[in-house]
Every structure is written in structure tokens, then in C-alpha cells.
């Protein structure tokens, strides 16, 4: 099943999902856009888009092109393109990205380092 996602560039489709009620512990790599709605612990690598949805619980080291976060996250993020943190997200950790957007009402506890180009 492929779901259209309006927040992705070039109308990119979600190509993988770890949905609510699912748990995964390990290393994840993917192409396209991947959505997490459940619980994830480990490492995530991709040049593409990771969406952590509302209600998701993620504890990880993340290296992606773009991160779109609405759930709960603890760990570190390196993004080549951008990080978007939307309400009601809770972020605890470190971000390295050339572009960062944090919406009003988000809980952000951590350090942000913005470079013209994130080194992944």
C-alpha cells in the first residue's frame, strides 16, 4: 500500500510503514519515504524522508535526508536537507541540519547545530 504524503517533495509516496501497535528494535535503511507510527529503537539510515507520526515512540540515531516529526523522539539526528518538528512532538536529543523548523507548542530539549550542509 502506498500513501500520498503532501509534506514530501516531488509528491513522493510513502513506501514503508511501521504502524501503531508495532515494535521494532534494530537497524533500518530505506529508499523513498518511510513512516513510523509505532515504537522503534535502534539506528535509521536513508538519504530520503523519515516521518515519525503522532503517537510514535522513537529512540534512535538517525541519519536521513529529511525528518518530519510529530511523535516522541529521543536520540540524535543528522539530516542532509531539513528537520521539521510539528506539534504535539516531544524532542529530546541533538540535531545537526542545515534547516530546522520547530512549531509552536513543541517540547524541545536538546542542542541544535545548523550548518550550511549537514555532514553525514
Describe the protein:
- Strand 1 (3-4) and strand 2 (13-18) form a beta hairpin.
- Strands 1, 2, 3, 4, 5, 6, 7, 8, 9, 10 and 11 form an 11-stranded mixed sheet that branches.
- With 120 residues, this protein is mostly beta strands.
- The protein contains no helices and 11 strands.
- The chain has one domain (3-113).
C-alpha end-to-end distance: 30 Å
Rg, rounded, reads 13 Å
What portion of residues belong to β-strands? over 45%
- Count of DSSP H/I helices: 0
Based on secondary structure, the structural category is mainly beta
- Oligomer category: single chain
Furnish the topology, listing elements before pairings.
Layout: E1 3-4, E2 13-18, E3 23-29, E4 33-36, E5 39-45, E6 49-52, E7 57-69, E8 72-85, E9 90-96, E10 100-102, E11 107-113
Parallel strand pairs: 2-4, 3-5, 4-6, 5-7, 6-7, 7-8, 8-9, 8-10, 9-11
Antiparallel strand pairs: 1-2
Amino acid at each position: 500500500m502506498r500513501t500520498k504524503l503532501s509534506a514530501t517533495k516531488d509528491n513522493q509516496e510513502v513506501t514503508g510503514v511501521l504502524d501503531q501497535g508495532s515494535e521494532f528494535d534494530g537497524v533500518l535503511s530505506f529508499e523513498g519515504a518511510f513512516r513510523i507510527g509505532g515504537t522503534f529503537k535502534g539506528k535509521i539510515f536513508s538519504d530520503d524522508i523519515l516521518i515519525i507520526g503522532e503517537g510514535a515512540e522513537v529512540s534512535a540515531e538517525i541519519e536521513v535526508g529529511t525528518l518530519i516529526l510529530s511523535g516522541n523522539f529521543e536520540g540524535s539526528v543528522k539530516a542532509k536537507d531539513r528537520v521539521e518538528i510539528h506539534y504535539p512532538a516531544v524532542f529530546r536529543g541533538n540535531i545537526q541540519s542545515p534547516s530546522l523548523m520547530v512549531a509552536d507548542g513543541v517540547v524541545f530539549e536538546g542542542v541544535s547545530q545548523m550548518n550550511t550542509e549537514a555532514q553525514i
